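Re: the request from the purification team.
They wanted to know what the chain is likely to look like in 3D before they choose a buffer screen. I agreed to run a prediction and write the result into the notebook, where they can find it.
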Amino acid sequence: MQHAYYRYTREELFRNSPKIPVQILPDNAAVFRALAEEMADEIARHNEKGERTVFICPVGPTGQYPYFVELVNERKISLHNVWFFNMDEYLEDDKTWVSIDHPLSFRGFMQRTVYDQIDPALVMPPEQRVFPDPLDPAAIGKKIEELGGVDICFGGIGINGHVAFNEADPSKTNAEFLQLPTRVLEISRETRAANAIGDLNGALEDMPHYCVTIGMKQIFAARKIRLGCFRNWHRAVVRRAMYGEKTAGFPVSLLQDHPDILLRFTDYVAALED
C-alpha cells in the first residue's frame, strides 16, 4: 500500500492538518538550540519559584547539550534542584550495562559532554543523574512518581517510530503499549542497523543486542514532550508521525493524543529533495 503523506511537500505538511504540532527550523543548529533553550528556560522558571525540575533526557539527539551547557554556565543557572532521568542505555549480552567507557555508553556520553562541562558549583549531584537500571527497572518509575512526575520529556524518533528504546510491537494494542514500564528488551534489527550506520560506521556486529529503556508509560505521563528530528530518513518518520494512524507498530504515533507535544525538525527534513 502506498501512503500519500510520504509525498507531502513542505507546504502540504501544514495544509493537511497534522495530528502532532510541529515547528520547522532552518537547520540542525536551530533545532538543537531550541531544545537547549527550552531546557534552560524551564529550569530557570522553576528555580525562581523554588520548585524542582524533572526531565527525561535522550542521548539521541545530542546536539542540544553543548548549547545547554553554555547557557547554564553563562547564565549561572543552578541545577541543584534538577533531576535528569536518561531514557536508556545499551546492555551487554548478560543484560548488564555496557561499561561507562564503552564508545556507545550513554552514561559515558552524559558524563563527558554534559556533567563534566558544567561549572561544579552549578551541576546537580550524581544521585540526581539517573539511568534506568537493568537490575531494578521499576526503580526509575517509582522515583519519578515520588518527585511528582516529569516536567518535560525530550527525545528523538527512531526509524521504526521508537521513542527511547520502546521498539515497535504491533502485537500489542495501543492502550497496552502506552502502559509499558521501564524494562530490558532486545533491540530490533532496524534500530541496530540504523544505529550502526550512525554511530559505528556500519559495524553492525559490534552493535549491542540489548538495552534498558524507560517505559512508554513514563514518557506519555510527562507534562510536556519535545522531539527533535534532523536526519535524512526522518523525512519519512516525521510524515508518518504527523499523519499516520495510531499504532503500537509505530510508537511515536501514539503520542498524537498527548496534550502538550511539539515536534521540531529542519527545513532539510521538511523537504523531499536535497
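For the purification team: The longest strand covers residues 224-229.
Please add any questions underneath this entry.
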